[in-house]
Amino acid sequence: MGQIELGLFEFCGWELDLAKRELRALGAPVPIGSRAFEILEALVVSAGEVVFKDDLMKRVWPGVIVEDNTLQVHISAIRKALGKDRNLLKTVSGRGYRLLGNWACHGPAHRPPPTSHGLSLRFNDETFHTNIPAAASDVIGREAAISEVQALTSAYRVVTLTGPGGIGKTVLASEIARRLLPTLDCNAFFVELVPLSDPGLVPTALAQALDLHLQGDEISVDLVARAIGSRKMFLVIDNCEHVVHAAAEIIEAIVRTCKNVSVLATSRELLRIDGEFAYRVPPLEVPADGEASNALQHSAIQLFVARTRALQREFAPDREKLSAIAGICRHLDGIPLAIEFAAARAATLGIKQIAGRLDDRFVLLTGGRRTALPRHQTLRATLDWSYELLPENERRLLCNLATFPAGFTLDAATAVGNESEAQTALGISNLVSKSLISFEGSDSAPRWRLLETVRAYSLDKLGVKEDYRRTMRRFTKYFLKLYRPFSDERELQAAIENTGIYRREIDNLRAALNWALSSDGDRILGGRLAAATTDFWTAISLVGEGGEWAQRALDRMGEESGTRTEMILKCALGFALIYTEGMSRRGREVLVRALDLAKTFGDFDYQQRVTCALWLFSARSMELGDALAFAREYESVAKERDVHSRATAAWLVGIPETYRAAHREALRQLEWAAGHLPSDNRRSDMLRLGADIRTSSMAHNSVNLISLGMLDTAARTAELSIREARETRQPFVLCVALAWAAAFVSLSLDDLDRAKEWGDELKEHAIKHGLRPFHAVGLCVEGSLASRRGKPADGIAALRSGLNEMREATYLLFYPFFLSELASALQGLGRFNEALLEVGGALDFAEEKGCRWMVPELLRKKGEILRDQGASAPSIVRDLLDQAMRQAAAQGAIYWQLAAGISLVEFLEANGEEPDVVTTLLPICNQFSEGAANPKLSRAKLLIGHSPART
């Protein structure tokens, strides 16, 4: 035999036999596909030089257009065959490939005829035999898989299609074989192993299927391999899983002994032999939730519709039906067999019936084709086949893992399975190889899950009630331990910063809580888990859901009543009620009980939390005396503590002082709070106190800044508060900032474009996160804008709706402000008596609640309504406007003093009097150091400029 010595490289132990078409390592044959061999031959002959990609493709696939991806599949197959020497094959970026090493290349090349794809083209009139079954129906949604596997069959000697029962392995293998038949220059056989119950019969089954005419009682693996010899064959060996060891043994022997045989196998479990390429058959494509408009572009939907039409010719799905079909296919994990069962039932029972009964899928999804194998005639039988093949320890592990609706980590599986980590890891590995568990995540964060259908089946198999209870207790205890950092003040900040870890487990957490708080669960364990996770729900912006779990746990409290668990749950429930229902009596009672418990246990953290909640409750319901009392009580304790506590106290004091119109004191307190709050406590404070102190301080300070005439600063502060709120990624924090910026700042400064932008965002955000009080504010902003832009009738409807929501939620911070806006809308339609009634109600409310900051503007508004009504006694209007100016001046609220002064001057001029414009307005204007473009300041300057006294 001739030999080609390649360059100056040292001998690397690899040789190529061109006559036998064999790759050998140190003399031992290495399996490799026919196309991969031809590529390797071209690289070896090039003696270490670069072989361009185009040249390789023309040589190996002459006359056929081949995509780069096909070449890459075969290059990967060569590297896999080279094993530890894979680095000998180098990629030259953008050009091609080169092979290093001193290779031995023997014998003359035996050139197979040109091919289009697959193995080899038929090039003469020789007749080949095949028993590949004909297609029973169209193969839907598998074109990409067919193309990929066709390429793999020429790159690897053994390709195994693997996946769970019903995924379509046999259908796919048969279709690939049928597509390859016209290009094969050899016999093609379909070998069905499913009827075999004895692994020892596998060699006999192959011998019979291949018509080898072997005699004797004992047909061995080697005998079959020798009988095949040098014959060319393409074998499809179907359903290897129940005799997997015997199947692997004979396929390995055939590949080792018979150089011209390639195998396409199907098995729920990998063969694990040299040269095998495992192709996991994917499920069919299903649309994401809410994608009904393009549902028919997804292969799972196409299969369902096609199979339903085969039984019900007139079937024509509309948008609603497609949405239901999409839900069914998602619920069935895109598994073709399950979808075919569902389609068969839909043709007789209707789609809605199927969609509503999938929890009962093992009873419902029966009645496959009569000609199908028994294990493919019901969904349960399909899974029974896989389950019965498992050893007992793997059955037990599979059932335990079915408790995880959101997948699991090795740590979680070990805890729930109650075995060692090594045993659990081995069990998971085996179940993955048997296609009952799928790998998710990444190498750095490995994670596994069961398909929903497999999970439902395995839960059903979990066993008697006590077995299920023991497993779920371990499951719940694991998640109690996992989420415990959210209940530890020392670990809370770190937990908040790593919420991604905990978010991944959210559906598992819900499953644990659901079981523990059920009638068959463990209420004490459930209460502790609900308490441990209260801050988690707030951290991920699900305040309402956290409150619901707290309520369920409290309803089943029992002997845990009067404990720290009750204190934590009542605090969480109270906060949730504030943000979802508003300031209800129930919420206050819950918080008062929590504060009593916190004092009993001497728990400063929860005393602080609940005091802040009660303060928030009082402030939002405009019980300002109570709010200030809670603030001062907290302030007296905080003086002796750290700067963080003092900043919190300044915030608590500053907000009720704002409403009481102590603007300068409130401004000082709130600026100090925003400026001195330590940033490292900010995220944990949002959970503990139900607010972001920095954002809340800036938002509320806009009242003080506008009142004191710092108009540009107020606008900038409002915008900054929104930016700061966005950074927190907390819906309720952003809603607070948007509410003040849209409702108060923008409307007060007559910036209607900004009011609309922020008001629309507020309403959308509130709806999305179920924050009803803020939705009420958004509605009122919408109504005010409609009224101010010339559509008072539309404005009245929105304002009344929003005000009703505010009353129902007892969220009253903006109540007098929007009553005034409603009065203005009614005034615009000439409904003066109604307008007076609303503004009168606003004044009564403000006086009753001590909400002094709105009084000057409400007095001015009442005076203007009486003016437009044509009051019989002009002195009443003058007195109201004078009173508005005096009260604003007493508060230092020069902006509202200026507004009342303008109304007074204009009223007197319209009434035929000559007001002293300069004396009335100029001293006020001179106090403004910013806001020159503000409409009120501009109007005042215009009036002053036209005043006779001025000229």
Question: How would you describe what is shown here?
Answer:
The protein is α/β, with parallel strands linked by helices and 951 residues long. Among the domains are: 96 residues, Winged helix-like DNA-binding domain superfamily/Winged helix DNA-binding domain (Arc Repressor Mutant, subunit A, Orthogonal Bundle); 138 residues, Rossmann fold, CATH 3.40.50; 89 residues. Helix content is 60%, strand content 7%. The strands form four sheets. The chain has a five-stranded parallel β-sheet, sandwiched between helices. A hairpin with a 4-residue loop joins strand 13 and strand 14. It starts with 10 loop residues before the first strand and ends in a 6-residue tail after the last helix.
Name its key features:
Arc Repressor Mutant, subunit A; 45 helices; alpha/beta; 5-stranded parallel β-sheet; Rossmann fold; 4-stranded mixed β-sheet
